[in-house]
């Protein structure tokens, strides 16, 4: 049996628990290892963020004033995070050097606090240290933090993994800074981590291809994957301390539905069928997991982790939830489908659907065809009107600067978002090659690509001029817009709207 400490590193959502570490922990525990999960992101916020903002985030949601209070608390936390992590200038430099640049602007006292917490927690339960990097800024923090941990305790074994490392190892042209980590796990996280445990301390056992040790000068990657083995995943581990640490009126826990995408044709996405196999889990397993989490932890709100929770899967979940005895609420992500009409979406709402996240990408038929989205603006119109008719909140994702985008197409997308605000609650506009957080925004561009948006700063300026009534928050990948009075966090959003409307 191996002792393992898994750490969530900031910056990350303070309101939700990412699926990666709990499912990895469940997989390793089922194979006899002892695992702990520590959320350094929330620990740092509780220690250093404005206490008033935290108390408002944890308060009851009763009326519109409480919703407005949540939005204000979000703004305070955004401002605090930008200061805490140095708010590095945006860059489209797809390199390890850019990650290092982001890392250097993080104040030393923040890194010292995180490293000291990691060393303390690891001393309590001595073992291997694992860190998960979901995005570019998280990777920058992990690099600095790992160096500091090794400086304090050279014997510490630090293992890094996550989709950002898989992306970086495939797309970044310069040499990775392997001095920060003892091992890097790319691709199939759960199975590769398990194989790594068999090699540590046993030099006669060869290291699998999905693992990179400090003795190698180049990261070799075959494909990107969510990292769960085929078949039914082991029940994830959500220790009470992890759930209690979430800054939300009620925790929203992830429930794994599928690896890959049931559509798998969008040309900008790393979940194409040719790259990532589609591996759904059985719906009765999903409902059994929801029942287990409700029984063990009293949780009733869930995030269905699926790149494309399509009509067939949604319909199956509605049927599997049964006759209404389960009072669960859930959110899901999908494409636009003709099947998403009023009767279908009403059945989803009646079964607890509180938020639907949809990949708009563009409101231009030529761009949609070039992206291989498989639907038209007519479908977008019908679906959004149906969701509005059944009071189902919708969050949209859009891409600005795709190689297929024309000035007319980009203008059509922005005009749609400006003129049809009543049909959605929030939207995130990703600048096509602003960073590699999703990996594919640079890798699918052919040759030099000059985005029409130019930069996040330019996009933010244009949106501010076009939609002054909307609230906006820019990060290093794009701009999130939302209707006034609604919290930025999508999970808080659907909880707030449902609570306010049901009282």
Description:
By secondary structure, the chain is α/β, with parallel strands linked by helices. It folds into 2 domains: 3-65 and 83-213, 3-Layer(aba) Sandwich (Rossmann fold), CATH 3.40.50; 250-502, Alpha-Beta Horseshoe (pyruvate-formate lyase- activating enzyme). It has helices at residues 20-30, 40-48, 51-58, 64-84, 96-104, 108-124, 136-152, 163-171, 189-199, 240-245, 283-297, 311-320, 342-350, 365-370, 377-389, 407-419, 440-443, 456-466, 490-502; strands at 3-8, 34-39, 128-132, 158-161, 183-185, 211-213, 252-256, 258-259, 279-280, 301-305, 329-334, 353-361, 394-400, 426-431, 471-474, 478-482. A hairpin with a 3-residue loop joins β15 (471-474) and β16. It starts with a strand and ends with a helix. Mean pLDDT is 83; it is low at 213-227 and 444-449.
Element layout with pairings:
Layout: E1 3-8, H1 20-30, E2 34-39, H2 40-48, H3 51-58, H4 64-84, H5 96-104, H6 108-124, E3 128-132, H7 136-152, E4 158-161, H8 163-171, E5 183-185, H9 189-199, E6 211-213, H10 240-245, E7 252-256, E8 258-259, E9 279-280, H11 283-297, E10 301-305, H12 311-320, E11 329-334, H13 342-350, E12 353-361, H14 365-370, H15 377-389, E13 394-400, H16 407-419, E14 426-431, H17 440-443, H18 456-466, E15 471-474, E16 478-482, H19 490-502
Parallel strand pairs: 1-2, 1-3, 3-4, 4-5, 7-10, 10-11, 11-12, 12-13, 13-14
Antiparallel strand pairs: 5-6, 8-9, 14-16, 15-16
């Amino acid at each position: 049996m191996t002792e393992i400490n898994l750490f969530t590193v900031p910056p990350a959502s303070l309101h939700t628990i990412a699926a990666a570490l709990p499912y990895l922990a469940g997989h390793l525990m089922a194979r006899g290892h002892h695992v702990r999960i520590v959320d350094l992101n929330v620990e740092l916020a509780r220690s250093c963020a404005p206490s008033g903002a935290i108390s408002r985030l944890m308060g009851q949601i009763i009326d519109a004033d409480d919703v407005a209070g949540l939005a204000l608390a979000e703004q305070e936390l955004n401002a605090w995070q930008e200061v805490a992590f140095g708010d590095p200038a945006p860059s489209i430099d797809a390199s390890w050097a850019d990650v290092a640049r982001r890392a250097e602007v993080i104040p030393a006292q923040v890194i010292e606090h995180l490293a000291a917490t990691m060393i303390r927690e690891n001393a309590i339960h001595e073992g291997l240290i694992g860190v998960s990097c979901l995005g570019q800024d998280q990777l920058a923090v992990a690099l600095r933090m790992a160096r500091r941990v090794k400086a304090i305790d050279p014997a510490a074994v630090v293992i890094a993994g996550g989709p950002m490392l898989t992306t970086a190892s495939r797309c970044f042209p310069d040499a990775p800074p392997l001095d920060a980590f003892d091992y890097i796990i790319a691709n199939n996280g759960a199975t590769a981590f398990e194989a790594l445990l068999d090699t540590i301390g046993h030099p006669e056992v060869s290291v699998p291809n999905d693992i990179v040790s400090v003795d190698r000068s180049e990261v070799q990657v075959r494909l990107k994957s969510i990292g769960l083995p085929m078949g039914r995943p082991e029940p994830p581990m959500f220790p009470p301390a992890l759930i209690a640490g979430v800054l939300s009126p009620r925790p929203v826990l992830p429930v794994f539905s599928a690896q890959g995408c049931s559509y798998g044709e969008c040309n900008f996405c790393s979940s194409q069928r040719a790259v990532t196999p589609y591996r759904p889990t059985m719906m009765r397993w999903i409902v059994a997991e929801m029942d287990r989490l409700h029984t063990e932890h009293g949780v009733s709100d869930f995030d269905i982790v699926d790149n494309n929770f399509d009509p067939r899967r949604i319909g199956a979940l509605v049927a599997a939830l049964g006759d209404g005895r389960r009072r669960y609420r859930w959110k899901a992500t999908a494409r636009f489908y003709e099947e998403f009409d009023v009767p279908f979406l009403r059945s989803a709402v009646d079964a607890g659907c509180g938020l639907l996240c949809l990949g708009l990408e563009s409101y231009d038929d030529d761009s949609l065809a070039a992206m291989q989205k498989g639907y038209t603006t007519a479908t977008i119109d019908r679906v959004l009107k149906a969701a509005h008719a059944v009071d189902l909140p919708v969050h949209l994702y859009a891409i600005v600067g795709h190689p297929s985008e024309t000035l007319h197409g980009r203008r059509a997308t922005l005009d749609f978002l400006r003129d049809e605000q009543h049909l959605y609650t929030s939207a995130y506009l990703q600048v096509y090659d602003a960073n590699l957080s999703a990996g594919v925004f640079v890798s699918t561009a052919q040759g030099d690509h000059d985005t029409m948006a130019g930069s996040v700063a330019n996009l933010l300026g244009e949106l501010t001029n076009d939609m002054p009534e909307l609230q906006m928050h820019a990060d290093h990948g794009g701009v999130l817009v939302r209707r006034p009075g609604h919290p930025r966090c999508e999970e808080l959003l659907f909880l707030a709207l449902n609570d306010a409307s049901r009282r």
